[in-house]
């Protein structure tokens, strides 16, 4: 029997935990699948896929390949179509179908933490993960106002327009401390160390008194500088490992049956093994 091959692609990829959690799930499911990781930089996705043989079943995509994967995919699921970002590719004959499981991962992470009924949300960043976070907020609290704290004014304004297209109230935040103090939820979508400088400035500000939850998608190293600031203020923090776990659960559902909403056999045991592998 041919071992099905899968992998996570992105850059940087060296410290990805995806191979460990996928391998743990496959063991519980009794699947002879091999999941590896490859460094693929922006612009290199189609070239990488062109060299894959028919043993390859699917791919996970991380930064900076999510928008590129959306353009590459022959079909998109609803979440990928709405966000324009794909973090999962499934081979379907000679073409690849694209899915976005990041939205599901964020929703699940917040749901498990008991986060709901939000009035004001601050999203840090304006890339693909910020867009997925916006779509997740739309599911959890469609009445919420979303503010964006981002260095790039062009992508920030695009994120604001995207939020408005979903029916959310949205605008820019120019002062992190002021916006974070008012927010019921702060979602940092930046990679590791991306908020270190801002976190240090916030911790030194006498007026910095956040009252809400921090969800930091960066999980290595942990706690991040931003998470440490929240912990010092004795406010709740959600690690990005929760998002990583649940987006991977949806990916494995896709790889198994092509449907991210179809639960896995003995899924509770699968999730437990994946969580242990983290």
Provide a descriptive summary of the structure in words.
This protein has 278 residues and is of the alpha/beta class. 44% of the residues lie in helices and 21% in strands. It is built from 12 helices and 12 strands. The strands form 2 sheets. The protein has a 6-stranded mixed β-sheet with strand order 2-1-3-5-6-4, with helices on both faces. Strands 9-8-7-10-11-12 form a 6-stranded parallel β-sheet, sandwiched between helices. The longest helix has 18 residues, at 240-257. It is globular and about 60 Å long. The two termini are 30 Å apart.
Question: How do the strands and helices of this protein lay out in sequence?
Answer:
Blueprint: E1 4-10, H1 18-29, E2 33-39, H2 45-50, E3 56-61, H3 66-72, E4 75-76, H4 78-83, E5 88-92, E6 95-99, H5 102-112, E7 120-124, H6 128-140, E8 145-149, H7 153-165, E9 169-172, H8 176-182, E10 185-188, H9 196-204, E11 213-216, H10 225-232, E12 237-239, H11 240-257, H12 267-277
Parallel strand pairs: 1-2, 1-3, 4-6, 7-8, 7-10, 8-9, 10-11, 11-12
Antiparallel strand pairs: 3-5, 5-6
Helix pairs in contact: 1-11, 1-12, 5-6, 5-11
């Amino acid at each position: 029997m041919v071992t099905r091959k899968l992998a996570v692609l992105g850059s940087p990829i060296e410290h990805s935990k995806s191979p460990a959690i996928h391998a743990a799930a496959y063991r519980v499911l009794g699947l002879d699948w091999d999941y590896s990781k490859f460094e693929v930089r922006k612009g290199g996705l189609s070239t990488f896929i062109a060299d894959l043989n028919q043993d390859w079943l699917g791919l996970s995509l991380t930064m900076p390949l999510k928008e590129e994967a959306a353009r590459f995919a022959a079909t998109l699921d609803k979440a990928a179509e709405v966000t324009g970002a794909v973090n999962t590719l499934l081979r379907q004959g000679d073409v690849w179908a694209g899915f976005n499981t990041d939205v599901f991962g964020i929703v699940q992470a917040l749901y498990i933490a008991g986060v709901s009924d939000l009035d004001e949300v601050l999203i840090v960043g304006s890339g693909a993960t910020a867009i997925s976070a916006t779509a997740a907020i739309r599911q959890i609290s469609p009445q919420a106002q979303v503010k964006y704290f981002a260095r790039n004014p062009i992508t920030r304004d695009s994120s604001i327009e995207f939020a408005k297209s979903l029916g959310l109230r949205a605008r820019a935040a120019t002062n992190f401390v002021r916006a974070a103090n008012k927010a019921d939820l702060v979602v940092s979508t930046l990679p590791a160390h991306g908020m270190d400088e801002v976190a240090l400035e916030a911790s030194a500000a006498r007026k910095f008194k956040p009252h809400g939850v921090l969800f930091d998608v960066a999980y290595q190293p942990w706690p991040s500088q931003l998470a440490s600031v929240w912990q010092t203020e004795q406010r709740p923090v959600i690690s990005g490992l929760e998002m990583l776990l649940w987006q991977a659960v949806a990916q494995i559902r896709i790889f198994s049956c092509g449907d991210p909403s179809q639960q896995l056999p003995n899924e509770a045991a699968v999730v437990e093994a994946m969580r242990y592998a983290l």
